[in-house]
Amino acid sequence: MSILDRFLYNLKNADVSLKVATVAMKCDPSPEKNLQTIKHYIKQILTVEPDVELILFGEAILGWYNYPEDNKGYHQRISKSIPGKETNFVAELARKYGVMICVV
Question: Engineering a disulfide at 54: which of 3, 14, 26, 100 sits with its beta carbon 3.0 to 4.6 angstroms away?
Answer without folding.
Answer: 100
